[in-house]
Amino acid sequence: MTNSFEDFPKAKMFFIIGSNTTEAHPVAATFLKQAVQDGAQMIVVDPRYSGIAEHAQMHVPIKVGSDVAFINGLMHVLISEELYDKDYVQSCTVGFDSLKEKVLEWPPERAAEVAGVPAETIVAVARKLASVKPAMLIYTLGITEHTCGVNNVLSCANLQMLLGNVGFECGGVNPLRGQNNVQGACDMGALPNVYPGYQKVIDEAARKKFEEAWGAELSPNNGLMMPAMMDGLVDGTVKAFYVFGENLANTEPDIRHVEHCLESAEFMVCNDIFPTETTRFADVILPATAWSEDDGTFTNSERRVSRVRKAVEAPGVSKPNWWVFKEIAKRMGHDWEANSGQEIWDNEISVLAPQMVGIKFERIENDGLQWPVPDLDHPGTPYLHKEGCFTCGLGNFTPVEWTPPAEVPDEEYPLVLSTGRRLYHYHTRTQTGRCAGLNDLLGEETADISLADAAKLGISDGERVKVSSRRGEVEVRARVTKQVQEGMVWMAFHFREGCANWLTNPVYDPVSQTAEYKACSVKVEKLA
Amino acid sequence: MSQIKINGREVPFEPGQTILEAAKAAGITIPTLCHLPQTQASGVCRVCVVEVAGSDRLLPSCETPAAEGMEVKTDSPRVREARKGILEMLLASGQHNCLVMDLPPEKWTSFQIETMSRPWHDQICPAHGDCRLQDLAVEYGVTVAAQEPPSGEFPLDDEHPMIVRDFSRCIQCGRCVAACNEVQVNRAIPAPWGPRKDQDPDQGWYPLVDYDNCTHCGECVQACPVGALFEKKAYGLAYANDVEKVRTTCPYCGVGCQLWLHVKDGKIVKVTGVENGSPNKGRLCVKGRFGYDFIFSDERLTTPLIKQADGSFAEASWDEALDLVANRFMEIKQKHGPDALAGVSCARSINEDSYQMQKLFRAVIGTNNIDHCART
Ligand code: SF4
Ligand code: SF4
Questions:
Q1: 3-class DSSP assignment, residue A208
Q2: CB–CB contact A309 B248 (8 Å)
Q3: What CATH number does domain A5-176 carry, 2.130.10.10, 3.40.47.10, 3.30.870.10, 3.40.228.10?
Q4: Residue A309 alpha carbon to ligand 2 centre in Å
Q5: ipTM, two decimals
Q6: Residue B39: CB atoms within 10 Å
Q7: CA nearest to A462, candidates A449, A480, A445
Q8: Interface of B with A in 195-224 (CB under 8 A)
């Protein structure tokens, strides 16, 4: 997020796109709902009439995967009606002319055709959005989990820069990060192209710095992203695979394919707290301490590094994950000094990652600090690009073209399946499935379908149906709901049985390698 | 800046502030009971009454705006007497089976027998030690000896998997209503006014829940100042005085809510939100509040496991398992080069773990083949 949760109660206008906020980020949603209750405006763009849409003054049910076309249409209106922020565009950005050229190819009528909403709606949204400044743009995985995910993100940034909304309190481009520490794992350099603090592995100076700090020679080449690792397992270029805490066999698209990849590993190691569908494929399983059994930090969506504390003892001989990695390193000839979460953070991370220099455990005893925190007296950074001053100089407009999802409905598979999270569970339920009460609130997966499709297929609410795609099929109960638009099916991936990932399509954004969880083609059949 | 006089002391206030807010800013405590921070004052309990010169009646400080030159007494005998009376009434209105129910012996026994026969009353009230009413009753020396203890039926809702609503202890302060409607904005607890089909008017009003709108966040439980709403999973496990509170961050979504873990004898017995903590300001959702007990599951992995030739797993020592991993890694590295190894880190675990894993791959194995589920 460029901005903070603290802005939510104060903001006057929200543009929320592809975010199931009330279920995926429930407490963030309370601040949004409260702001609307106190008079703020909210526009929700989502194929589904989601929980947060119920609170919006305007809900725009665009078609799955039409985001770029829709936003280009909005920008067409902003530019042709001269509603955009000319001063800001002039002084804080570059590339406006090429953006304009692209956007002018997308009059609202054309955007409307792709997005499946009336052209007048696009005009109305653009005008409303331009009427309040600043506006906060909030998005989640509905934007990123597409083969055009990066283009979707660029569109969001283009829109906010055109409106002059980046660099101000209550403005900005605000992706809500899915998992508790996905921000932190990125910050820590658990990515194939960057060291901790986003220092590039192909940058010689950065590499020298880390070679010195770690006393080792480092590879100058970018590593593999996860989908390429999986392929490498099958073609034999990757022999050993270390999976820490992820249940890939349920979370990755096309479970049959994923399991084939895992099966192909010559040697596989897992650190985990439970046996999972993934640990079945391991040669060695190492028992780890869980949340509340070890000391460390998480970093939330607003870049806030907060303390995680040990409160209870881990069962059996389970050990902290950092200890496991240290012990393996030792056996491979490297002695690492740091011997606790605090020593790792204070003596290494905060020394090596420039954003974290001012963050030490003693400073985050209570509330955490939002990076960048360049020195020990710095109070943290609630919002980035202050007053439109971008870290890289000027904000860059990048015109983008709309592309449809990799798989679009046809006669055989006439419906679009989109996937996401539900309120009562988290991911593959390795945790929530073992908490008393949560399974009572939601005990099985459903296929959410529209009233129209239910009538067409003769399916009633709660009836068991078969959902199939080119990759697999599942049997689940149908949930007939007004949340879902005609032509769409919506499912989650919390239950192994009926997991949407038996169906999803393993195709990826060419840049980010994010899978297209939000769009694949399926059919729904009544069970005899 | 405008001034009012509180207990003889000049106190500045901002226009629009209530007496309560002005007092609080000046470090003067006025007791409150029904007032829930971050919501509109409802003024129903009247525990926060003060004496204002020129007014015959005592005024609720949470609702009365401060005005230039106003003279206020927050702790006069008259004010204390009034508060005591209110507290006596509240205490005697419900089946509060804790130590402040100081009934004379003959009434005590029959009251306790009747009370204990009710569900969820076989022990001392779960709020004991962390109860606003109990605290105030002690502070004001409240006695209920002269009162008739309550008897009869109260509504009880214990169908919910995680929350018990025991209205025999409800003081009708409306904090759960405000928490649900104004803080969480779920609108699942209808306010007492307006036409109601769901309640028997003869029974009086109780904050019953419309489960169609409830998100099971438990904000109402956290807001309840007494023992009327409580967590089922925590019932009977511990009282406030014998838990240690440990602050931590929620393990689920990217909001990063701050939690208090209530720990007794090495077990988490309950979770509440850290009031005023950033970013959540005390709020939690159903997962953050009720999703903690997975760590105590007996399905946890407790020892290293090594796969055998027949595909089954055998228990191993750390040394056996780690030696095997290190040796295989070195073998594969030697034979096929460092890029034949790849790792996926965990987006749920702590930063320090991810840091160590990428360091292992980069500095020890010698490859940048390290990634995580960054995209979900
Ligand atoms: S649990 Fe949450 S949603 Fe349900 S009644 Fe209580 S405050 Fe409202
Ligand atoms: S309490 Fe709920 S909203 Fe807050 S971090 Fe946990 S899962 Fe997210």
A1: helix
A2: yes
A3: 3.40.228.10
A4: 17
A5: 0.93
A6: 17
A7: A480
A8: 215-217
Nearest ligand 2 atom to alpha carbon A26: 3
**Tally of CB atoms within 10 A around A376:** 12
**Facing A274 at nearest CB: one of B247, B299, B345:** B299
Helices (H), chain B: 19-25, 77-92, 105-116, 132-139, 175-178, 219-223, 286-290, 318-336, 351-359
Compute the Cα dihedral for A248, A249, A255, A259 and give only its sign. Answer: positive
Task: From B224, B149, B222, B214, select the one nearest B187 (Cα to Cα).
Answer: B214
Q: Residue A281 gets which letter from DSSP? A: G
pLDDT tens by residue, B186-201: 999 987 765 455 556 5
Query: Which residue of B158, B269, B350 to mutate against A (max A Cβ within 10 Å)?
Result: B350
Put simply, whether A528 touches B (Cβ < 8 Å) is no
Of A28, A4, A25, the closest CA to residue A174 belongs to A4
DSSP-derived 3-state class of residue A39:
coil
Pocket test for ligand 2, best of B285, B286, B289, B290 (most atoms within 8 A of CB): B285
Q: How far is CA B362 from CA A219, A223, B172, B349, in A?
A: 7, 10, 61, 19
- Domain topology for A415-526: Barwin-like endoglucanases (2.40.40)
Does residue B189 line the site of ligand 1, with CB under 6 A? yes
Mutate to test the interface with B, among A244, A251, A262 (most CBs of B within 10 A): A244
pTM of the predicted model, to two decimals? 0.93
Domain A182-367 top-level CATH class: alpha beta
**A353-408 pLDDT tens trace:** 999 999 999 999 999 999 999 999 999 998 887 766 665 568 899 999 999 999 99
How is residue B295 annotated by DSSP? G
Q: Which-ligand-closest: CA of B286? A: 2
Tokens of residue A8, six digits = 């939510």
Structural domain boundaries in chain A: 5-176, 182-367, 415-526
Q: Which domains does chain B have, with CATH numbers?
A: 2-75 (3.10.20.740), 105-242 (3.30.70.20), 337-376 (no CATH)
